């Protein structure tokens, strides 16, 4: 899971750099940057500042904040936002076909990075769903899969019938 989080952070950083470059180029050209670029810029910052720190550190440092519903919600919402962001930028970059300017290449790179980021968040969302299902529904602990074994290695006696 650590490798997955590092990959998500590196991709979010790459998307932050490429979308910032695109936004600066549009500002230099005299126009405002497109909303698709602005959304991915916001999403990369929110992933780096909010989602990844919560998903990475809440288990160890804030166990009361690491509720299974909160983890699932953070994973799912982030995954949906990355899907929407990369689709919106992909539709926007269809205008750049045949363009050889650096901003066109940056937009295509940002689209590719965002698609990979979406796949990584889809994988981590599936992992959180598995985590969600393997937790005890009452208190969040793992379910007892010991098969009736007690802590001493003996089998527990069946309940007495009256």
TrEMBL record:
Q: Which InterPro entries match?
A: Marvel (IPR008253)
Principal location: membrane
Q: Which UniProt keywords apply?
A: Membrane, Transmembrane, Transmembrane helix
**Start and end of every MARVEL domain?**
2-126
Q: Name one GO cellular component term.
A: membrane
Q: Which residues cross the membrane?
A: 38-57, 69-92, 112-133
Q: Which domain of life is it from?
A: Eukaryota
Indicate how the chain sits in the lipid bilayer.
Multi-pass membrane protein
Where does it reside? Membrane
What's one Pfam family the UniProt record gives for this protein? MARVEL
Which PANTHER family does the entry mention? MARVEL DOMAIN (PTHR37451), MARVEL DOMAIN-CONTAINING PROTEIN (PTHR37451:SF1)
Q: What is the protein's given name?
A: FAD/FMN-containing isoamyl alcohol oxidase MreA
Name the species this protein comes from: Mycena venus
